[in-house]
Write a structure and sequence with these properties.
By secondary structure, this protein is of the alpha/beta class. Helices cover 39% and strands 16% of the residues. The protein folds into 2 domains: 125 residues, Type I PLP-dependent aspartate aminotransferase-like (Major domain) (Aspartate Aminotransferase, domain 2); 88 residues, Alpha-Beta Complex (Aspartate Aminotransferase, domain 1). Strands 1-2-3-4 form a 4-stranded mixed beta sheet. The N and C termini lie far apart (66 Å).
């Protein structure tokens, strides 16, 4: 849309940090706010209620809040995790991926918006006899079937249990790292575990995502404790080899 964008800094765990300062500088303009409900590397979740409070304080009435909840949105909603991010909390639009937690075999996503926003882009398509409210004018029908099948297969309780299993696995993973003297952490109610980056060889072997000196493991459905333990064991052996290779410095 060729609109000017402003990057907002984040704190150590990945959440929005200096929003008030940025908004105060540009308070005369309407704002489109892109909020993360689970950032890529640390799964940090921005708090919409805090964002709305800043808008009220600065009297910014014209704004739109879009929540990128690609991974964390599904299980956060299933377990009512805090901070809340749906329309009750002030969201205007929400995006959730179908190929992540839900498990569609092809990349796909779901965008939810308030009806008044959807109606603004609707156009009558004569040959199908209905309104088209998609931005692109088309969509893949297979994606909807795959998502419907997964939801019907697991059911609400089944998907909720999968979410609980993922959270339990992420807690196990952090404990396993620490018991092997490896620094690791996760954000509250997150299934993403962050730790110092291993060697390139180990990252390539295990396909570990890495950025700014840190790597992560996402404890998705289907990942086992045995697999986590195997990776940590290899990482521990690598760290031990590095420690043994460190030169000894003598002080006279």
């Amino acid at each position: 849309m060729n609109l000017r964008s402003i990057v907002i800094s984040s704190n150590e765990n990945g959440e929005i940090d200096d929003l008030r300062q940025v908004m105060q500088t540009h308070r005369e303009l309407p704002a489109i706010m892109l909020v993360n409900i689970g950032t890529t590397m640390t799964e940090a979740k921005d708090d919409i209620t805090k964002i709305k409070a800043v808008f009220r304080e600065l009297a910014i009435k014209n704004h739109y809040i879009h929540c990128d909840a690609a991974l964390a949105g599904t299980y956060s909603a299933l377990l009512n995790l805090e901070p809340g991010f749906d329309f009750r909390f002030g969201a205007d639009g929400i995006a959730i991926s179908g190929h992540k937690f839900i498990g569609s075999p092809i990349p796909c996503g779901l965008v939810l918006v308030k009806k008044n926003y959807k109606d603004r882009i609707g156009k009558v398509i004569p040959y199908i006899g209905t309104m088209d409210t998609t931005i692109s004018g088309s969509r893949n029908g297979h994606s909807a079937i795959f998502m419907w099948y997964a939801i019907k297969k697991w059911g609400l309780e089944g998907m909720r249990q999968r979410a609980l299993d993922c959270l339990e696995l992420s807690a196990f993973t952090v404990d396993k790292f620490k018991s092997n003297d490896i620094v690791a952490w996760r954000n509250p109610s997150a299934i993403t575990v962050v730790f110092p980056e291993p060697s390139l060889e180990l990252r390539q072997k295990w396909q570990i995502a890495t950025e700014n000196g840190f790597s992560h493991i996402i404890c998705m459905p289907g990942i086992s404790k045995a697999l986590i333990s195997q990776f940590i064991e290899e990482l521990k052996k690598e760290n031990n080899r590095i420690d043994l290779a460190d030169p000894v410095v003598g002080v006279m």
